[in-house]
Amino acid sequence: KRIALFSGLAVVGPVLLAWLRSKTVGIDVMLYVEPAFKLAKYCDGLSYYLSRIGENEDLGFFTMVYGITKVFGEFSVVLFFCHLIIVSLCFYSLVFFKQRYNCSLWFGYAIMLLHFYNPSLCLVRQGLAFALFLAGMTMLIQKKYIKCIIMFILALSVHKTMLAVVVACVLLKIIVEHIESMKLKIFLVLLMFSSVLFASSLAGFAINIVDAKYAERLSTLEANSGGIVTIVTYALLAVIPFIVCYKNKNIQLMFFLYLPVLGFLFQSMGKLTMYFIRMGIPFMAMIMFTIPYVMKNKKYQKLFLLFLLFLWIRNIYFGRHWETVPYIISPELF
Fold it and tell me: pTM to 2 decimals?
């Protein structure tokens, strides 16, 4: 009961912050969440609403917004339910990894809050899609295939770019199962170095193979892969877990440890457009599992969290990444 109480409080805090925030907290909120809410308020019938949204949009997300709007009629409640799903599914997945792989629940949750929570306040659709995808991955491990497929379909309906995540994961899974572990580790490290040197070429190739709508976004958004400190930091976060576990033969586990490497590749391609960094967030968010798996020493855990706190202050507070600071409570609630 005590653990359940503390777990509930841990989830409620971040959800309340998301609920109480102004629409200016998170740059994408006013870009598509608020317009979707306003349109839902004045549309009679879901089919008409979706036709106004457009057939190429992420209909799962907009259907959810429509339903919440019609039942509650408040924009803050839309934000509340979005983050209730995001935080709850991330916490559920952390509990699963604790039970399955003995990963520290609270260490992983602290990493999630410092590394993934602020971007999710901005990238609401992508945050929802990632949380659904993550829950689907835990069900895949448990061989609950029907539930896994449902979660993946929901994730894709919320944000179509999750298709790239699913495809990348499938390809990585095949590679992990067919290439000897040490050779694969060497290949991935070399790939990371190459991605830094040839980021523009890789990004150009990616733009040429995606849907025209997303290609336009990829080629027009501001470039920002970060400086040398950012690149080195992401490289270490991606590489350390699978280097520490270089003798591990568990294919299923190693698959998860390799996922942040894909996040680093997208981070490198941010030299061409910021949108690649957004696409890499679901992969880099996996450090909430990979780091706790390899870092059991409580002293090192505290030092690592201090390091993440430093990055949070540097990037979120001073750098204003994702436009979630300053945090402002919505005046419409009072």
Answer: 0.88
